Amino acid sequence: MNRVPISPPAIPVLSAVYKRPLWSVMIPVYNCNQFLKETLESVLCQLLPEGEMEIEVVDDASTDTDVEVLVKQVGKGRIKYYRQKENVGSLKNFETCIVRSKGELIHILHGDDLVRPGFYDKLGSLFNKYPEAGAAFCRYNCIDENGKSLYTKSPESKHDGILENWLFTIAERQHIQYAAIAVKREVYEKLGSFYGVNYGEDWEMWVRIAKHYPMAYTPAILADYRKHVNSISSNKYLTGQYLKDISFVTELIQNHLPSESKESILKKSRKYYASYGIKMAGNTWTALKDKQAVDAQIKHALTLYKGPWTYWLTAKLYFKLALSKLWHSVSQL
């Protein structure tokens, strides 16, 4: 089984015999027991009837708890449950979510993220007002494992509407999290599912959609994206693998851009993520004091982009590390 498809997996068109709900809330999970109950409750409290919204947990063979029992306890029959026969990896699990969905609009909500009251009503109204949109998304708040706010995403626009020149904006760097976006099923049917990498695969997808469709937006903060040490992305930070994945995604994104824009957007994107990688290396040192992890991230960051700014950031970080080690040595005297 290919856990990371090398091209977008095809999504079959639904048969016309289905009586379809408007929404499919598909919840991929893998070992996120401590957060799943809260995630499910955040959807249920929206109080959309079953005929209007299907809710299904798609379990990638979790081992931390009996997810089916938890779904039954929380959902009381309102939430469907499907378990993979074996662990297939995040991309194949997302593909399963899309294939199993019956709704016209698909929301892939990870089992550790949350929606706020009004999410589905608001995004549904955007699709009604802008029927040409292939996807609609909102601002989001980032929280930690305890639900504490870390930051709030800056707005893309002050008002609801179709975003202008969005392809070039989203191609430069990631602006959207899964929790904050809904996509028409027909869009996935036309463009296929996620592929290529396990980190940044959603960024490529949002660019792919922006190439073919307008995207609607609201600056209302209606979703919470959770960062925590057990998340899939966090496991790649210590080795710098996430920066290698981002580098690969920047090349994939080139396929969606007009030739006259490719070089400038690629340069901006790589410069931004090189700076981001150096910043994350600093965060790694602050949290873990792991010099090897810092070195790995710096190495991959400078592979993305070399220039006066990134060299300055690197020198500044290593000076900070040297001071930290010196202070520690002095304090031991």
TrEMBL record:
The keyword Protein biosynthesis does not apply. Pfam families: Glycos_transf_2. It comes from the Bacteria. GO terms for molecular function: hexosyltransferase activity. InterPro entries: Glyco_trans_2-like, Nucleotide-diphossugar_trans. The keyword Transferase applies. Residues 24-189 form the Glycosyltransferase 2-like domain. Gene3D superfamilies: Spore Coat Polysaccharide Biosynthesis Protein SpsA, Chain A. This is GT2 family glycosyltransferase. It comes from Pontibacter ramchanderi.
